[in-house]
Write a structure and sequence with these properties.
15 helices; four-stranded mixed β-sheet; binds pyridoxal-5'-phosphate; alpha/beta; 40% helix; seven-stranded mixed β-sheet; 427 residues; Aspartate Aminotransferase, domain 2
Length: 427
Amino acid sequence: MNLVSTRYAQSIAHARRIAEVIPGGVDSPFRAFHEVGGDTVFFDRAKGSKLYDLDGNCYIDYLGAWGPAILGHCPEAVVTKCQETLAKGPVFGAPHVYEMQMAELVIAAVPSVEKIRFVNSGTEAVMSAIRLARGFTGKETIIMFEGCYHGHSDATLASDGHQSSSGIPGGARAATSLARFNNLNSVESLFQTQKDQIAAIIVEPVAGSMGVIAPDPNFLSGLRSLCNEYGAVFIMDEVLTGFRVAFGGAQNLYKVDADITCFGKALGGGMAIGAYGGRKHIMDKLQPEGDVYQAGTFSGNPLTMAGGIATLKLLADNRVYETLEARTAQLFAGLRRIVEAHQYPVQLPRVGSMFSLVFAPEPVQNFQDSLTIDAQTFAKFFHYLLDNGIYLPPSSVDAACLSTEHSEAEIDATIDIMTDAFKHCFN
Ligand SMILES: Cc1ncc(COP(=O)(O)O)c(C=O)c1O
C-alpha cells in the first residue's frame, strides 16, 4: 500500500462497499470524484471551518456543504435550538409558531418577499415557483440561461448544460427557452418571437455552476424591465446567493426586485430547506387560497424552521458579512498575487464569499466560455489540495464557499498550500 492510499484507507474501503448499494456511491452526482478521479473521501464530522474524514484527516473546508455552512459547521446557537426542537417533536404535519416566525424573518430581510412557502430543497422551491408562475400567468414557456443550475426538476434540466439528463419529456424541453447569461439581446429576441407564451424568466443572479459569474451592471435590471414590459414573472433563484452574498441576498446587493425568489442552502443553517416567496397577489394563487398545488409532509417542519430562525438571527448581525468579505478578500489578494506573478492561466472570480478558481486562460462570462475550463489541470490541483488538507468542491465549474469560521491563519495556510499546488500543476 502506498503512502497516499494509507492516508485514505478507511475511505477507500467504504467507497468500494457503498458503490454496491448506492449508484455511483453518492446520493448526488457531483459529490462523486468523476471529474477529478480517484475514490471519494468519507467524512465523519464537521465543526467550524473544518471537515474530518474517517481516517482522522482534517481539512480546511471550502465546499461549505455546497453552500449551507455560511456560519461554519455546527454553529452552537443553531445546534442548541435544533436539539431543543427535536426533543419537542421534529414534525407535526400541522401549523406551528416556528414557521410563522421564520416567514416573518425572511419577509423582513427581503423587500420583494411579502409571503413565503417553505419546502425541503432548492429543487422543490424552483419547481414550485415555476408552476406558480405558469398558473399565475396562464402561459407555459420559461426562459432560463445556458449553464445556470436550478436543481433537478424536469423543467430546469431541459437544457444541456454542465448538468443534463436523459429521461426529460419532450414537452418539458419544448416549454423551456434558453438565453445567454449577461446577454439581454438574447432574452429580448425570445420575447419578440414568443411574447404571448412566456410565463417567466428564471435566473441565478450570480451564476455559480459555470465558474462564478457576476451579473453585468444592467443585466438583472434589464431582465426586470423585460418582465414588466411583456407581463412575465421574474424569478430569481437565490438558492445559492440568498443570505450568502449579502443579508437579503443578491437582490439586496444589486438593488433589483424579483416577483418570486427561491431560497435554500444557507437559509436553514444545515437543515434540509427550500423556500419560495414573493408578491402577495402571486403567492395567494397557491392552494388553498388559489388553484396552484404545492405540498409536502416535511415542508416547514419545526426542526428545519428552528435551524433557520437561529441562523437568520445570527446572519442579521452586519459583522457576519464584514467577516466573510474580509476573509475572502484576504484569500483572493494572496491568490491573485501568485497567479499574476507567474501568469498562471487561472481566473479568480468571486462575489462576496462565493468564489471559484477557474482554470481557463480568459475570464469566463457564459456557458460557452466555461467549456474552455481545463478540467484535467483542475483535477491535479484538487488532489494536491486534498492530500494537503484542503477540501474544494470536486468540480472545476462549481462555486466554492467560505464561512465566518475560517480564521486569518487558515486563510494564510490555504494561500501557501495553493501556491505549492499551482507549482505542482504548472511548473
Ligand atoms: C442556484 C441553485 N438552484 C437550485 C439548486 C438546487 O438546490 P437543492 O440541491 O437543495 O435541491 C442549487 C443547488 O446547487 C443551486 O445552486
